Each structure stands twice: as C-alpha cells, then as structure tokens.
Amino acid sequence: MIFERLVVGSLATNCYIIGCPDTMIGAVVDPGEDGHVILNKLNSHKLKCKYIILTHGHIDHIGALDQVHAATGAEVLIHSADAPRLLNPNRYSYFLTVNFKLPQADRLLEDGDKIQIGKLTWEVIHTPGHSPGGICLKHGNFLITGDTLFAYSVGRSDLPGGNHQVMINSIKTRLLGFHDETRIFPGHGPISTIGAEKRFNPFL
Ligand SMILES: [Zn+2]
Ligand SMILES: [Zn+2]
Question: What is the fold, at CATH topology level, of the domain defined by 2-97+105-200?
Fold first, then answer.
C-alpha cells in the first residue's frame, strides 16, 4: 500500500495519501491546506485520486478541498452528520475561515461503510464527540483517527457540536478494542499505536 502523511497548513494538520499499488487508484484524507503539496505528492506516485475523504468538517481539514477537488475531480466523502458543515464552514470555526464555496459531498458516509480504493478496502468507524460526524478509517493495522484520538491526547470538545463524554465513549468502545499493534494516524501530531494509547494516554 502507498501511504504517506503530509503535514499541512497553519495548524499542522496531517493529510494522508492512500494508494493502491496494483491499480494506482488513490485517495486523499483531510486536504487541510497546501493543495499544491498534496497534488504534487499524488503526481509523484502517479496516483489517480478517486476519493477525498474527510474525517470531519473542521476548516483545518478542508482548507484545500476546493483545490484538490478541482484538480482531480475526485468524489467528496464525509459522514452525513458533518456534511452540512461544507455549506457553511465558517460557522463552525473560531479562528480559520475559507472565502470560497466548497464542493459538496458526493457520498454520505455512515458507520460500517466500506470505501474501496483500488484493491484496498477501508472501513468507516463513526466516532462522534470531537464533532458529530467524526469518523475514523481502518484498513488492516492502519487506523486514521482524525481529531478524535491523538498520540497521548484526545481531541478538543469545545467547538460547536463537540461533547467530551461522547468522544471518550467513542474512543473506548470503538477504538481501544483493536489489537495493540494497530498503528494510529491522527489528524495532528505524531503517530502512535493502540497499545501505547491504552497504557499511556492520560485522558483514557
Ligand atoms: Zn477538528
Ligand atoms: Zn484538526
């Protein structure tokens, strides 16, 4: 599997590039900013980007959605509970704004949905709390956790629609049951494993 983490934008958002080496079909997760960097990376891998998947609708994860969508024509996938945010993203942000119209969702995701990237099957896990439509994405031992679970930390819950107890419950009931070796790839900061988070995360 082709899998790369790019750190983009003023809030150092982790954008992930996923690619199937057999079919050269790819996807971008959370194009937060720096669209040219994301597009260059897709090009360097010679990937045809089929999907733009959003772990949630916060502005630091969608700042380059417009640019990547325009350049690739990829379908935009987001959980149904966060999809309305693409209509009016600035209402849900305290400090960042976008000044252009965002592409809208082509497909609304629900818990348990499968996303087929070439021969790679990724599963959608609904983990509300940081935002109502927050999702994690899992393929084998790879778990993209958005702003729900970070290395030794958890997401904030003070933004509109956030709920700390709901988020902790999502992490405990939906994520911590995975194998200790499962590698987590958060929306910000370094990567970790489920085993390390179970032992050392002070919020859990
Ligand atoms: Zn967020
Ligand atoms: Zn974020």
Answer: Metallo-beta-lactamase; Chain A (3.60.15)
- Rounded CA-CA distance 38/188 in Å is 16
Cα of 22 from ligand 1 centre, angstroms = 33
Helices (H) and strands (E) in the chain, counts: 4, 14
Q: Which residues of the chain have pLDDT under 50?
A: none
Rg from Cα positions in the chain: 15
The rounded Å distance from CA 160 to ligand 2 centre is: 14
* Distance from Cα 173 to the centre of ligand 1, integer Å: 20
Provide the pLDDT for residue 94: 66
21 Cα: distance to centroid of ligand 2 (angstroms)? 28
